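Appendix B, Record 12. Input sequence as logged:
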Amino acid sequence: MNPPTDDEMEERRHRDESPSSNHSTRRYGGIALVLLTLIGAITFGVSPVVGADATSSALYSGDAGPSPAFATNTDPIARCTVSATSVQVGESVTIDASGSENADDHQYDKYGNEAFGEYTTQRSRLVSYAEPGTYDPQVKVWSYSDGEASDVAACGSITVTEATPTPTPTPTATPTPAPSAVAKCTLSETSVQIGESVTIDASGSEHADDYQYDKYGGSSFGEYTAQRSRLISYSEPGTYEPRVKVWSYSGSETSDIAACGTITVTEATSTPTPTPTATPTPAPSAVAKCTISAISVQVGEPVTIDASGSEHADDYQYDKYGGSSFGEYTAQRSRLISYSEPGTYEPRVKVWSYSGSETSDIAACGTITVTEATPTVTATPMSTATPTSTDSEASAPSTRATTPVPTAAATQTSSSSTGTATDGEAWFGVSPSDPNAGDMVRLVAYPAVAQDTVATHRWDIDGDGTVDQRGRVLELPARTDGETTVTLTIERTNGSTASVTRAVPISPNFAGETVTPQRPAVGTGGIIPAAVGLVLLLVLVAAVAGWSRRDR
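Logged structural output:
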């Protein structure tokens, strides 16, 4: 066999190397494909570009609700326990509601028959039973933080048995039950003439923190006072049976009423002039004096009636119009007023003195000329994402009108045909009535009708005629340089309304801020990784193409 020629050897070598070259090219192509796949997975798999749109859609779509992690529950939750489940008649049991949540007021029903007692801030109540039986006491708690809401909880069952004689136990320390108020009163005279003074003496009352007097008997009680006696007189003949009502706040809030006796009042008769003798110095009489802070104002502008210069004045009444009736009794020596109609007004003040005998005096404060309000430019408010308020009992400020419409102070009006308030009923209480700087003043609505017939409470705090707050209870900063006219309007479930206006020592400058969520700024975190991946992809494709051309 002849050996291959040089040409045959060259052809065989070329034929053997050709598949090896093709195999190398395919190998490089496979490596490049794998690298491209990995880069694509790393670059586009972790990129937040696609997810960012979904996340943004989820965050800002109209269907997205608030995150429950930031929701704040302000509803009251009633919880209570009893200190004993089996007692004898007359033994004490403590109803403990201190475990309740978001509770501003408490009501207790020791029998479990839905007859809840008076409102109180006391978180526990000491009770006892006069008859044997089984009782299921309850507690009802109220919250005023975000509208008026309540909750009821059963405290457990108490079995009461007849008292049985027991041997004298070893003396141990036992809690002393809270003392209850006991009213007692006497009269200095039982027969007087018109204008003569009589003293109601309630100093014999027990555990009395506050007093209220009813000099006519059967009518409404007057204002709360710490005075243990009251000097009164009558302007009409007749028979009267004055009463006193005392309050105790030790342990729990209790009250008691006592009749003081019968007073017969007759017509005054002339008496002969007595022989001059040394007489005691007469009691000082009330002397009214007052001034006004301005004599010319526009409709809605405030004016201060200052009666601080009056002498021997224990109570004040104000008549801002002049010639009309005086308003409610108050211990405030000044009154901030405004007028809703142009005209000329001559306000007056009436002061009362109870030292020695009851005397009063009236003084004119001056003349005020009220003109039409000059129109002012009102800035267009910026559009904000403020949640729309609802007609609930939420204590949130509402939008205020541009032109103020003040309300006459110390007046009561009612558009209801039933349940109208009387002069002796307080439609909203003020505590404290004489605050210091920095104090918070608490206003609590007490309607003249049953609480369950009230639909809503609306408050006009600055006297401009618009609703500023809603809810049964408000807490506002105190004011020490005067008073602010506040109007409470009670809307009943039958659609009728009743209003009362009082001047109280609170500041009308309250802040109502609404937090509007802000959309986060759109970042570039998803764009940079995508751009880097694209550059790497192009570099890799160029490198693979270069390797392929070099192998050929």
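The radius of gyration is 42 Å.
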